[in-house]
Write a structure and sequence with these properties.
The chain is built from 2 helices and 8 strands, in the order ααββββββββ. A hairpin with a 1-residue loop joins strand 5 and strand 6 (110-126). By secondary structure, it is mainly β. It has helices spanning 2-18, 21-24, and strands spanning 27-36, 43-52, 55-68, 72-86, 93-108, 110-126, 131-146, 149-164. Strands 1-2-3-4-5-6-7-8 form an 8-stranded antiparallel barrel. The chain has a single domain, classed as Beta Barrel (Porin), CATH 2.40.160.
Amino acid sequence: MIRKAIYPVFALILFVFTIPLPALAMDMGVQSTVRLSPISIEESLIGVRFDQSPFVFTPKAGFGIEDRDNQDTLKVFTFGCGIDYYLSEQNALKPYVGGDILIDYVDANDSDTSLSLIPHIGAEYFLNKNFSLGADVGLHMGFGDYYDSEFRFGTASSIHGTYYFNTAE
């Protein structure tokens, strides 16, 4: 049931945030992220980043593959949203605090669903007005069926690159 409902919800989030961009002087960008965590699969995520400074919203989706002991191939599809709060907006380097809420669909012989909460701190460095590189570190809390565990706790880190369209100008 959740699996069928997540696609319309993700599309609705994108639609709702995209309509008021010009009126709100909101910038929009596309973000590519690689997330690393010892309690989860290394995954790649693509998101649409909505910058309404000092807040930034990033609906995202991604995919990861892991080979367990050269036997089971584990595939993970991830959907979710992140929110960040810029602590400073004056320089090219912008530190932030935030968090991600992600739903993982795991396919290994049977399908499992888990929820991940990832509070983090990080920084984004703007190379120019359209492109930035960033990194963050945080805690990864996972709930649901995954690796035969109902609760997982560990660290998480990610690196990302973002291209902004400068729609706020």
